[in-house]
Amino acid sequence: MNKTVTINISGIIFHIEEDAYDKLSKYLNTIKGYFSKADGGSEIMSDIEARIAEMLQSKTSAIKQVVLMSDVDFVMDNMGKPEEFAGDEQAHSQNSSNSDYSEYINNEPVKRRLYRDGDSKVLGGVCSGIGHYFGFDPVWLRIALALLLVFAGTGVLIYIILWIAIPEAKTMTEKLAMKGEKADINNISKAVKEEAEQLKKRMEKYGKEFSNMTSNSEAPRNAAEKIIDFFGDVLGNVGRVLLKIVGVLLVVFGIIFFLGLTSSVFGLSFMMDSSNGSEWIDMLLLDGKDFYIGIIGIAIFAGTPIIMMIYGGIKILFKINYRNRWVNLSAGIIWLVGFLMLLYVGIKTGSDFNKTAKVRENITVTNYDTLYLKMHETPVNSQELNFSDNEEEGEKGFKTNRRDNNYMIGTSNSMKYLLGHAQLNIIKSQTDKVELVIVKEAKGGDKRSATERAKNISYNVSQIDSLIQFDNLFKVNNADKFRVQDVTVILKVPVGKVVYLDKSIESLMYDIENVTNTYDGDMVNRRWIMTANGLKCLDCDGITDNSDKNNSDEDDTEKDVKITVNGVDVDNKDVQVKLDTNGIHIHTKKK
Amino acid sequence: MVNSENTKAQMRKGVLELCILSILSQGDAYPTEIIEKLKETKLVVVEGTLYPLLTRLKNTGLLNYRWEESNSGPPRKYYMLTEIGETYLKELHLSWYELVDAVNKTITKK
Fold first, then answer.
1. A533 and A451 in one domain?
2. Which of A53, A140, A557, B58 is 20 to 30 A (C-alpha) from B98?
3. What would the pLDDT profile of A236-295 be if each residue is shown by its tens digit?
């Protein structure tokens, strides 16, 4: 008497002797081990199981119901040892480079695949390949590409990326797959349906097997494996969809970034006269060579990752599995070159900001009891300024304020200048004479070049009788570059003398101290007398003293707002706000 | 002594694909039928070789299959050539004859 086990192979139930069962299950597990890594492994497994079921069925009958050891041996002899047939196929799928099928083996039934068509190519066969894939005449694609070429040459790079990413159809299979069944929406939905059905089948199968397993309580480990297999399948499907989405995102964002980069780079290098960015880079960098090194460096440094993004996205989207190691390697090297270029320009430019130098120029001023301070009638270069976007509206050159502290670039006689706002300060003179000092400041690689640059800043102050006129802006030659140049004009006024600040001078004034803490804007169009304590207004009767006003403001606030343990109570002439246990009440009083 | 069995097995394996496609070009068949035909010609020694190959050919798109109920046993997977498969087979046929010609010429030359 022998014990038998009930098993289910391909949906057919067999009674099998225990030792025969052990042998058979070991055999099947070995085969499974060989195919588990190969794609389509589960399909191969179920085919083999179906065949085994068939063979075992031929060995059993109404009289001989039980599968014996000899029957299992028969099956194994016919089917062969797993290492005889499986190992080969596995090696085949792994050593994919010399196989015609290499690209397919790792994928589920793919109909049409993207290849470059070497047979009907103009350049690399990219367009004809894409044409095959989407089923239209590549001529349209070529025209579109040529049009893109006109627009900033974007087409060229996209073409090159595609050229690298898409393999050429070399073998017969690849050529067939290139023109294979079209992957249109119908097919995709069909494929999805098939996939879903397959999943359903598999789930049923797993369920069946699982219940079998548990009822037999034979191999709990096996059951656990099945469950893991099942979740692996589900996760695999979800993962594939996510991967597609990632691919789409990579390509879309890659192209957006790429367009942004090309337009800025091309803008920088080809529209030097109208683009602000390039002018600034030019102002910053020591010579023209650096300018181009910098631009190319930026393009490479930012462009390489973007291109690799598109490249990766395309490979994901079209399931291009073949790996091109030199692409990654050379991308890395190119990126490094770009980085070094930027580093070189950066260090070279940065070291030119090392030292700061200040140059003081004393301007002799004829003394008058009252000095009138005004801006020169013709502003420096104002009509030729290229205004950057943060410039305020209104009259050019005048409206911009010292407080904005921005530099501008102007042109005259096709020479470029850096223009900056000068700063005027009025302080008490230690002597009994009016003195005027212009402090010019600049940076450079060493003290000498910084001093040289500072000296080169042109800024004019002129005096006609009691009228002192100032330039609105200081001017730096392009050759001197932008090196944080700054000009401060210090007017030293002895005690007892009076200055009149014209409205036009407002943009020059920068927190000029006075005894009443009056703002620069309120100081203009008035006369100010220098006292021992500082400037004092002579005709400010009309306006309140700011220092007092500030205090009274604070007092008012204190009276208006009451904060107690009961809540907050605000009450002034315009509004009444009450915050207490009843909630918040806001009441406005209309006049 | 050099073992010629291994070389022979490799040669058989190389043309197995062509043979399977040829068998299917004569009509749809399920694996057992294919195996029987191959066994007649001693091309296949162990059956296991066939299944991975069929799956691979199917995944490539050269083959397709349909299920058919069997009155004795599990449902059968009937394989058939696809259009691509037919074109591919024609191509293989051509290169097969070219190969046979070339090999014959080479090995008969003294």
1. yes
2. B58
3. 777 878 888 888 898 888 888 887 877 776 665 554 444 456 677 777 777 778 888 888
- DSSP assigned state of A389: T
Q: At what angle do helices A41-59 and A18-35 cross, to 10 degrees?
A: 150
Across the interface, of B13, B47, B73, the residue whose CB is closest to A80 is: B47
Nearest chain A Cα to B63, which residue? A109
Look at residue A345 and tell me if it is in a domain. no
pLDDT digits (tens, 9 = 90+) for A515-527: 888 887 788 888 8
Q: Does residue A151 surpass a pLDDT of 80?
A: no
- Please report which confidence band the pLDDT of residue A553 belongs to, taking 50, 70 and 90 as the band edges: very low
Q: Which residue has the higher pLDDT, B56 or A340?
A: A340
Closest Cα of chain B to A23: distance in Å?
Answer: 17
- Tell which of A43, A69, A94 closes a domain: A94
* Total domains present in chain A: 3
Q: What residue numbers bound the domain in which A62 lies? A: 4-94
- The contact set of B with A (CB < 8 A) is 13, 31-32, 45-49, 51-56, 58-62, 72-77, 84, 87-88, 91
For residues A170-176, give the mean pLDDT: 68
Are residue A572 and residue A454 in the same domain, yes or no?
no
A584 and A511 belong to one structural domain: no
Same domain, A450 and A507: yes
Half-sphere exposure of A380 (CA within 13 A, CB side): 23
Q: Taking CA atoms, what residue in B is nearest to A56?
A: B73
* Listed range (A38-47, A318-327, A541-550) with the worst mean pLDDT: A541-550
Which candidate from B48, B56, B62 shows the least CB-CB separation from A86? B48
Does one domain contain both A381 and A434? yes
Q: What is the pLDDT of residue A395?
A: 37
pLDDT tier for residue A338 given thresholds of 50, 70 and 90: very high
Local confidence band at A188 (pLDDT 50, 70, 90 cut-offs): low
Determine whether the interchain pair A89/B56 forms a contact, defined as Cβ–Cβ distance below 8 Å: yes
Neighbours of A29 (CB within 10 A): 14
Amino acid at A77: D
**Residues A525, A569 within the same domain:** no
- Asked if residue A397 is part of any domain, the answer here is yes
Q: Which fold has domain B4-108?
A: Arc Repressor Mutant, subunit A (1.10.10)
Q: 3-state DSSP helix/strand/coil percent for chain B, to nearest 5?
A: 65, 10, 25
Alpha-carbon span A552 to A544, nearest angstrom: 11
3-class secondary structure, A200:
helix
DSSP per position, B39-84? HHTT--S-GGGHHHHHHHHHHHTSEEEEEE--SSSS-EEEEEE-HH
**Is A572 found in the same domain as A434?**
no
Q: Tell if the CB–CB gap between A180 and B52 is shorter than 8 Å.
A: no
CA distance A10 to chain B (A): 6
Long-range Cβ contacts of A192-201 (<8 Å, 24+ apart): A195/A108, A195/A237, A199/A233, A199/A234, A199/A237
Min distance A60 CA to chain B CA atoms (Å): 11
- Spell out the domain ranges in chain B: 4-108
